[in-house]
Amino acid sequence: MARRMVIIGGGAAGIGAAGAAKAAAPSAEVIVYTAFEDVGYSPCGIPYVHGKEIPDFTSLFLAEKQAYADAGIDVRYETTVLGFDPESRTVQVEGEGPSGYDALIIATGFDYKPPGVPGEDLGGLYYVKNIRRAMEWDKILDNVRHAVVVEASPLGLEMVTALAHRGIDTHVIDPHPWALGELCDPDIVAPVQESWAEMGVTTHWDTRLLGFTGDREGHVRTVATTDGELPAELVVVATHKVANNALAVAAGLRTGSTGGLVVDDHMRTSAPHVWAAGDVCEIPHGVGGLPLQGLTGSHAYAQGKVAGTNAAGGERAYQPVYVPWGMVAGTWMIGGAALGEVAATALGVPHVVGKATGISRARYFPGVRPVTVKLLAEPRTLRLIGAQMVGGEGIKERADFLALAVRKGITLHDLASMENVYSPPIGALNEPIVTAAQAGVST
Amino acid sequence: MARRMVIIGGGAAGIGAAGAAKAAAPSAEVIVYTAFEDVGYSPCGIPYVHGKEIPDFTSLFLAEKQAYADAGIDVRYETTVLGFDPESRTVQVEGEGPSGYDALIIATGFDYKPPGVPGEDLGGLYYVKNIRRAMEWDKILDNVRHAVVVEASPLGLEMVTALAHRGIDTHVIDPHPWALGELCDPDIVAPVQESWAEMGVTTHWDTRLLGFTGDREGHVRTVATTDGELPAELVVVATHKVANNALAVAAGLRTGSTGGLVVDDHMRTSAPHVWAAGDVCEIPHGVGGLPLQGLTGSHAYAQGKVAGTNAAGGERAYQPVYVPWGMVAGTWMIGGAALGEVAATALGVPHVVGKATGISRARYFPGVRPVTVKLLAEPRTLRLIGAQMVGGEGIKERADFLALAVRKGITLHDLASMENVYSPPIGALNEPIVTAAQAGVST
């Protein structure tokens, strides 16, 4: 008899889980419930369509709906799951009776933390998430002259750049003293902030949101902040992502300090026959074990594959995370892996720092840009515990590498004696990682 | 009394050695002899000036001559060293008497292997090396209609692309069945060869050079090959680089199977008080220990620093090499680290292969290009022993990383579970290294 597997959520985690479950158990019945009209598109691309770097929304779709049906994945669109019961192994779907499952995967993702200020219900507040809503918002953007982005989070950074590209007068407010305050060190993000100023963006640091005021039609007109009142016909709410855990909490599943579901290394939740993946979970950090929630689509997809494989009777483990990250911000790329200096200090993790600024190509090759690398290491052993970078090119590949280097116990000595490609159009005589490591070794 | 240190050669190795020697022993007298008019420029940039990607030759200079004088480095330009004697610790300089040294560093670099065919002494044969000659050749290129590049070596590839950019009808001949035959696997270089065809370059594989014929003025007019006679007013001789070891051999220093000087891990030669660095040496490969000669400017510079430090009384070791390499070729970037499939097979090194083609950015982001990664690993342990890649972006950074991964014993399992940055403009959902490793694990 075919195994019946139910997945709640059609994002990267849910779709990853569905594909892996079908691969591990081809005869299984795999059902994906989603409240939305679509699955299998890239929400991460939305800011770039708004910024007119990607020509249209349709290119964000990975596959036609028929492709999922052809793969034997039964996606139930615009269908709300009201709850589930691990005891009776049933899900309760709106407008249907309860239906049974052999294995359940929770992939309900995240919500933006509500601003919690007066005026939250006004029109003109944009929470970037669903592609159909994004298509509607994109038309509205043509008539927006003033916008405020609430919080310089990763999404906030992408949207600031997109709105500036679009010629909109853009302000960003954030309670931290610099952008990406929880993730990034101030020296790394400083060039990004300078480039925003050059792009005409106004930044307000150490600034809290107080409320929104609207016009008679109930549409936002101003944003009240501790740095004064800002005009805005559009507010992008890019607050912290929190786990969309309501269904799981109601079913009695265990959550951790972040609000994310606690899972083991096989993505099993505290309830039998229930797995979870993606932003609804928390995952231990590889350095120190602190739980993390709200990682990337790549993490969600990989976790989905682990959960789907195991739920289908296969065997696959998920590792603690070292979180390589990277993005384009202003006119720069920034990124890193594991701990930055601010995080290490806040967590009381002892560390030494090696920092250097190099270049991305031969110094005389057109397009050459600076690349600043900061490496953090354990004091005596000089084992790498983290890195942060800002530069013109190659930040993604370096971040991937440095995250694995942390995981594998690579030291500043190893990096200081690393060979590097030297070819004028693509690499300079000295790799900035090597120079930073040499600086760290000699401190 | 100040220590007297003599360096023969003003390329990357010699200049690296001079700077490191001054850093390790600031009071030392540091003398650099060079037969040429200049030091401290980047010969690696020459093909890109010829290709008009870099606007002028002057930008290739790193520093004014005064900068070396200010740093206490005494460069003797256009000065030929006739010999040296380790016994009496003297160098013999043309037009001067013998002069003593406390430490000697041989950094005499490479020569192109002579073609060894009739017509070698004709005009119009260009050996890319010296910047003053390159400036003269660059003017000649304006009037060249037909060019032949002898051997699809790394320099040959750069020159083919440069000549094609310049609108010159370019043919390349090579005795191997594909380009970079000694370095690169045929599946990796295939897209490069296709892109050359699109650029109008004509390739002749499995083709040996037979000779050159000239006009009455002694200038080359045709190139005779086993694939017929090719018209050419210019021939770029990009044959294998061989160690310029004549002085060292005359002084009785030991050379290895490549013709490079044998050095220990402190860059000491077989003679007391004599060190060597750069293309005149051979260095053991990290996988299998086979000696390698003719590496990159980055290797030469790093070896120079090790030799200079040790010769000045400091302490610094040089590691076996894993040779990350990379370049722009045709419309692609290619690169790799340690062993490719052809080399591993030729050396009888048992291996498994994991290969995958991914993409450099989100599939919908403008500028996205394929990235093919091939990983080689030891059969049972799955320890990485090499990699080869071709793609649109990020090849240099991946090659650096994979060379260190080979050195540190990282396995396909490690790479298969590696996290990666996902951000539409700079990184795809799945890193091609990870996908290739997953393919290798499951074979």
TrEMBL record, chains A, B:
Q: Which residues form the Pyridine nucleotide-disulphide oxidoreductase dimerisation domain?
A: 334-425
Matching entries from InterPro entries are given as: FAD-bd_OxRdtase, FAD/NAD-bd_sf, FAD/NAD-binding_dom, FAD/NAD-linked_Rdtase_dimer_sf, Pyr_nucl-diS_OxRdtase_dimer
Q: Does the keyword Oxidoreductase apply?
A: yes
Which cofactors? FAD
Question: Which UniProt keyword terms apply here?
Answer: FAD, Flavoprotein, Oxidoreductase, Redox-active center, Signal
Q: Could you tell me the superkingdom of the organism this chain comes from?
A: Bacteria
Q: Does the keyword Mitochondrion apply?
A: no
**What sequence ranges are listed for the domain FAD/NAD(P)-binding?**
4-283
Recorded hits in Gene3D superfamilies, A to Z, give: FAD/NAD(P)-binding domain
Q: Which Pfam families match?
A: Pyr_redox_2 (PF07992), Pyr_redox_dim (PF02852)
| Signal sequence, renumbered to the chain | 1-23
The family assignment reads: Belongs to the class-III pyridine nucleotide-disulfide oxidoreductase family.
Give the matching PANTHER family: NAD(P)H SULFUR OXIDOREDUCTASE (COA-DEPENDENT) (PTHR43429:SF1), PYRIDINE NUCLEOTIDE-DISULFIDE OXIDOREDUCTASE DOMAIN-CONTAINING (PTHR43429)
Q: What is this protein called?
A: FAD-dependent oxidoreductase
The lineage, from the top, is:
Bacteria, Bacillati, Actinomycetota, Actinomycetes, Streptosporangiales
